[in-house]
Amino acid sequence: MTEREATVFVVDDDPSVRRGLERLLRSAGYRVEMHSSAEQFLEARRAHAPGCLILDVRMPGQGGLDLQQALADQGSLLPIIFITGHGDVPTVVRAMKGGAVDFLMKPFDDEELLAAVHQALTGKRPPPL
Prior knowledge:
The protein has 129 residues and is an alpha/beta fold. It has one domain: Response regulator (Rossmann fold, 3-Layer(aba) Sandwich), CATH 3.40.50. Helices cover 40% and strands 19% of the residues. It contains five helices and five strands. Strands 2-1-3-4-5 form a five-stranded parallel sheet, sandwiched between helices. Strand 3, helix 3 (64-73) and strand 4 form a beta-alpha-beta unit.
């Protein structure tokens, strides 16, 4: 499987964020699957589909950190990139201790997000531009 054959799953409750991420990721050649909630993602997700997850921290219902824990409890190895407009040190520490690949504050730079996706899918940092 190549990097472009993997799916980038996006879970964010904000429709405008989802639309923007979908455009960005598709323009970079990635397969994308969008979800508006953690619950929707869990219902739709294939057991161990290859890819990575871009996950909002704060959402109604089950939040991003809760979804991270639920996936870990299921034995998922899906790499996670957190995005948030409401980050604080304890949240970042919890996410990273839980195995997150990256933690980006909204608004984030497109290239920074694409670099994090590349790292999540390949395990390597992209070469500098």
